[in-house]
Design goal:
The structure holds two protein chains of two kinds. Chain A is built from no helices and eleven strands. Chain A has strands at 5-7, 10-13, 19-24, 31-37, 44-50, 53-57, 65-68, 75-79, 88-95, 105-106, 110-114. In chain A, the strands form two sheets. In chain A, strands 2, 4, 5, 6, 9, 10 and 11 form a seven-stranded mixed β-sheet that branches. By secondary structure, chain B is an all-beta fold. Chain B starts with a strand and ends with a strand. The chains are: A mainly beta, B mainly beta.
């Protein structure tokens, strides 16, 4: 257990529905990352926050995706009008920047299945 | 741009024999390199990281990796495989000082045969 938690662990939804995932990072960590992992592939970066500011978004993050980290603590990732291609594992990672080499610690992931 | 290539999608070894998982990297900067392991239904766990100090990096569970700049490689090794080592292994590169999102390889699935 790395100390990063994600909720829910599994989500099954129908195409067109909206879903929201939550990530709770390690408490003193100032950076929070979202990645997506499809079957047989390595995780791919989606977006990241430093405190409450969203600093970078991947081109993988379509307009249907939005992420927030309102108070610089937990984060949510929402997918609107889900499509079957959104089926994947969504991973959250956190890190502490400013004390030497950054190391990202990953949560267990939320597995999404869109029917 | 940074990238990594894991040269084998699947490696199978017998218990007690050495493990070698190969990784080549490409980076515009002096890279930070990592190996992560992912067991079924579990999160990614950091095995080890290279940050421009010693070129031979020791990690958890007896794993180590050697950074070779001339070969742009960062291969992962272990002298003696254990059944519990069976998992998916990812070679990962980050940017200067590690302060950029991680770029993962496609992974190598390690099977350990009794």
């Amino acid at each position: 257990d790395t100390g990063v938690s994600q909720d829910p662990r599994h989500k099954i939804t129908k195409r067109g529905q909206n879903v929201t995932f939550r990530c709770d990072p390690i408490s003193e960590h100032n950076r929070l990352y979202w990645y997506r992992q499809t079957l047989g592939q390595g995780p791919e970066f989606l977006t990241y926050f430093q405190n409450e500011a969203q600093l970078e978004k991947s081109r993988l993050l379509s307009d249907r995706f939005s992420a927030e980290r309102p108070k610089g603590s937990f984060s949510t990732l929402e997918i609107q009008r889900t499509e079957q291609g959104d089926s994947a594992m969504y991973l959250c990672a956190s890190s502490l920047v400013g004390r030497g080499q950054e190391t990202q610690y990953f949560g267990p992931g939320t597995r999404l299945l869109v029917l | 741009a940074q990238s990594v290539t894991q040269l084998d999608s699947h490696v199978s070894v017998s218990e007690g024999t050495p493990v070698l998982l190969r990784c080549n990297y490409s980076s515009s900067y002096s890279p930070s390199l990592f190996w992560y392991v992912q067991h079924p239904n579990k999160g990614l766990q950091l095995l080890l990281k290279y940050t421009s100090a010693a070129t031979l990096v020791k990690g958890i569970n007896g794993f180590e990796a050697e950074f070779k700049k001339s070969e742009t490689s960062f291969h992962l090794t272990k002298p003696s495989a254990h059944m519990s080592d069976a998992a998916e292994y990812f070679c990962v590169v980050s940017g200067r000082s590690g302060n950029t999102p991680l770029v993962f390889g496609k992974g190598t699935r390690l099977s350990v045969i009794a």
